[in-house]
Each structure stands twice: as structure tokens, then as C-alpha cells.
Write a structure and sequence with these properties.
432 residues; alpha+beta; BirA Bifunctional Protein, domain 2; Rossmann fold; 2 domains; 8-stranded mixed sheet; 16 strands; elongated; binds histidyl-adenosine monophosphate
Length: 432
């Protein structure tokens, strides 16, 4: 006998139902439009990749690779992983298709689900959506500033308020290596007071201790040496020019030498945008990014400097002002009795063929309940079909905003709906 208990979604993985979709669509459309204006084209890569891609790029000692990946052996014995982020896949595709031989600079964007087995909380999920950009072939620093400015512009156009832009530079791989040792030497005498996790990280990945949320760890780190003091001349010049360009673009930022981020592929520019408003809780990193100049080469390609960022769509939605999620329809067809159902089906088809959004409820409900539903669906107009009107060759058209009702002929009905919609449109953008 089959088990009748309902099956629930995997923990930390969410359904998004149609009523919540308009906000998602607005966010996705704004992202796509902004990316297009800045010269980025969309790339789509598989959700599943060979596991070594992430191990080699994100780094073995990172939380993502050591604890959070959904990895499995498929029937052909290959080790595969559900992508935890988009950069590694983009670089793999860039190398695999020898894109660098075709154009000197490539600007790509992507939008899709990512998978990390983290502890679920508000704003932190096991399947979450990212929108991201990757720019290959430009060493910066102007492109770095352009990318940061672009995200800030996007967030403010969406109405996300109260954001803070943090920037830092990690310098070259060698600098990071030297900093790792400097930091380890600084933290060693405090080891006994460090949190358990940070004790572990002192061995595996001391930079991440700077990210620790433990108050004692934070207190110890307050006096830690700054990576910015270890930068070589070229890295320092790159970082100075980045901050100058950001200032010239009018983008506010704060230099945060303790910003390290949890992925190993970064070098030089690093940034994160944190939010404070809306329903965001502790998961306040709205987006993060940085330069990964060595990664294309490390994954078997040429030496191509690159930079990118990604933002978490769920977190942006939590940070957005809570507007009503009204779905709207151009017309709802209502019948006074079921004998009109075939006529209603034909009318619905002609409305939709004309490009209008239209719905009808032909389940034999009362007029009252059909009208209530039309209201709930946000109908701009309601078209009522009844035998008496049919005998006169008309339908009743109800303007739901003006609360006015009139007879229109079958031939005029589409034009009449369009007239109502035109009344709502802004005049020549003057009210935008
Ligand atoms: P990331 O900082 O790991 O960077 O993730 C970017 C953003 O994804 C975060 O700022 C956050 O908004 C969102 N995010 C991450 N994990 C979760 C989660 N468990 N639940 C909900 N949202 C989450 C990257 O992924 C890099 N690939 C960014 C990048 C692109 N760097 C260079 N190019």
C-alpha cells in the first residue's frame, strides 16, 4: 500500500507560487535591463558540473567545498556537484569554447538557482537564486569601479535603501600567502580564546577568522594587521585608482581591510554590498564579488584577468519595500448562466488572440461569486454574457475602476477594453 502522507519540499528549498512572482519578475527584468545597458550578454551553463571544477576553483579549505556541496556519483561513476555558485561554471565555459581567441573582452551575465547545504535561516537557503556578472579580459581598475557602480545603481533603482558598499584589495596570490602567515602569527598567541571554528581555521584558512561572528573573535581581530599594508606597488596603485574612480562616479563606499570573503579564487579588488533595511536579518550580504585574475589560467585557459559579482535574489526581495503583489488582468468574462459557456470560451480566445490578458470562470458559479473573483484577480474590465444581451447582439462591459457599466456590441468589445487600458497608461512618460 502506498504511503498517503504528503511529501514536502527538501529543507531549505522553497517554492515560489504565482502570487509572489510579480516581484521576482520585476527584479529579474531590472537586472537583465541593467546588464544589457552595461554591455553584458546572457550565458546559461548546466546546473551540474564535474566536482573537481569547484574544488579547484573555490578551494578545498573553504566552507562551500568542505561542507556545503551537493555531490553525488552518477551511474557512469562520475563525481558530479550541483553548482554552489556561477563563477566556476562561467570560467569553465569560457575556456572550453576558447572565447578569448574570439574577442579581447567578454561580458557575461547569468541568472539561476545555486545549491549550498547551509543551515537554513531567513535569507539563507539550500537552493537560492543568484544573478551575476563576469567580465573577462579587462585588468581594471575602471571596470571594477563600473561594476560596483552598476550594482549600486541597480539596487537604488529597485528601491533598496540603506546599503553599505565595502571594498578591499587582497593583492596578488603571493601577497595573500604572506598575509595568511602574518595573520596566523598574530592570532597564534590568542588561540586559546578563539571560538572552536576559528581554532580550526587557524590551521586551514586563517583569513576567514576575520569574518567570524563570535564577539571574542571579533575583539581579537580588531587589532589584526591590515592586508592593505602588505600590498606591493602595482596592487596599491590598482586599489588607489579603484577608489578614485568610485569617488569620481559618485559611488559611496567604505574601505574595509577585514573583508576577505569565502572563496579562494579572489585577488586584488574585493567588494560586498550589505543591506540593513526591509526584512533582512543577519544574512545582510546582498551581493559580493571580486577580481579573480589567476582563475582562467588555473582552469586550463590563457592568462586572462577577470572580475565578477553575484547577488542573492531572495535577499534583495527581503530588502525591498513591501509592495502589494497584485496580479492584474485586462478582462474577466462572466456568464449569467452556464448556457453561455461556449460563447464565453470563444470570447476568451478572441481576447487572448488580440494580446489581452483574460480569464473566465466557467465552473457554473453564481454571478456574485464570479464577480468577487474578478475583483480579486485585479480585473480592469468585466465582460458579462447573458441570454438577454445575446438576443440584442451585445455584452455588458463593466469598467472596474470607474464602476460604470454599458452595453457594447460583439464587434466593439476588444476596442472597448483597449480604450480602458489606454486611459491608465502614463502620458508620454510625463508621469514616470
Ligand atoms: P557569494 O558571496 O558566495 O559569491 O554569493 C553571492 C551572494 O549570493 C551573496 O552575497 C548572497 O546574497 C547570495 N547567497 C549566498 N549564499 C546564499 C544562501 N545560502 N542563501 C541565499 N543567498 C545566498 C559568489 O557566489 C561568487 N560567485 C560571486 C562572484 C562572481 N565573484 C566573482 N564573480
Amino acid at each position: 500500500m502506498s504511503d498517503p502522507s504528503p511529501i514536502r519540499a527538501v529543507k531549505g528549498m522553497n517554492d515560489v507560487l504565482p502570487d509572489a512572482m510579480p516581484r521576482w519578475h520585476r527584479l529579474e527584468a531590472a537586472f537583465r535591463e541593467t546588464a544589457r545597458r552595461y554591455g553584458y550578454g546572457e550565458v546559461r551553463t548546466p546546473l551540474v558540473e564535474p566536482t573537481p571544477l569547484f574544488v579547484r576553483s573555490i578551494g578545498e579549505a573553504t566552507d562551500i567545498v568542505s561542507k556545503e556541496m551537493y555531490t553525488f556519483v552518477d551511474k557512469g561513476d562520475d563525481m558530479l556537484t550541483l553548482r554552489p555558485e556561477g563563477t566556476a561554471s562561467a570560467v569553465r565555459a569560457y575556456v572550453e569554447h576558447s572565447v578569448n581567441g574570439q574577442e579581447p573582452v567578454s561580458k557575461w551575465y547569468y541568472l539561476g538557482p545555486m545549491f549550498r547545504r547551509e543551515r537554513p535561516a531567513r535569507g539563507r537557503y539550500r537552493q537560492f537564486w543568484q544573478a551575476g556578472l563576469e567580465c573577462f579580459g579587462d585588468p581594471g581598475p575602471q571596470i571594477d569601479a563600473e561594476m560596483i557602480e552598476m550594482v549600486v545603481t541597480l539596487l537604488s533603482s529597485l528601491g533598496v535603501q540603506d546599503i553599505e558598499v565595502l571594498v578591499n584589495s587582497l593583492g596578488s596570490r603571493e601577497t595573500r600567502g604572506r598575509y595568511r602567515e602574518t595573520l596566523r602569527a598574530f592570532l597564534q598567541p590568542h588561540e586559546a580564546r578563539l571560538s572552536e571554528e576559528s581554532k580550526q581555521r587557524l590551521i586551514t584558512n586563517p583569513l576567514r577568522i576575520l569574518d567570524s561572528k563570535s564577539p571574542t573573535d571579533q575583539e581579537i581581530c580588531a587589532g589584526a594587521p591590515s592586508i592593505l599594508d602588505l600590498l606591493d606597488e602595482a596592487d596599491k596603485k590598482h586599489f588607489d585608482e579603484l577608489t578614485q574612480t568610485l569617488t569620481a562616479l559618485g559611488t559611496k563606499f567604505r574601505v574595509e581591510p577585514k573583508l576577505v570573503r569565502g572563496l579562494d579564487y579572489y585577488s586584488r579588488t574585493l567588494f560586498e554590498i550589505q543591506g540593513k533595511g526591509g526584512e533582512l536579518g543577519a544574512q545582510n550580504a546582498l551581493c559580493g564579488g571580486g577580481r579573480y585574475d589567476g582563475l582562467v589560467k588555473e582552469l586550463g585557459g590563457p592568462d586572462v584577468p577577470s572580475i565578477g559579482f553575484a547577488m542573492g535574489l531572495e535577499r534583495i526581495l527581503l530588502a525591498l519595500p513591501n509592495e502589494a503583489n497584485v496580479r492584474s488582468l485586462d478582462a474577466v468574462v462572466v456568464v449569467t448562466e452556464p448556457s453561455m459557456n461556449v460563447k464565453a470560451a470563444v470570447l476568451l480566445k478572441s481576447l487572448r488572440d488580440a494580446g489581452l490578458t483574460a480569464e473566465g470562470d466557467l465552473r457554473g458559479q453564481s454571478m456574485k461569486s464570479q464577480l468577487r473573483r474578478a475583483e480579486k484577480l485585479g480585473a480592469r474590465t468585466v465582460i458579462i454574457l447573458g441570454p438577454a444581451e445575446e438576443a440584442r447582439g451585445v455584452v455588458q462591459l463593466k469598467d472596474m475602476r470607474a464602476r460604470h457599466q454599458e452595453d457594447v456590441t460583439h464587434a466593439e468589445v476588444i476596442a472597448a477594453v483597449r480604450t480602458r487600458l489606454a486611459m491608465d497608461a502614463p502620458i508620454d512618460g510625463a508621469t514616470r
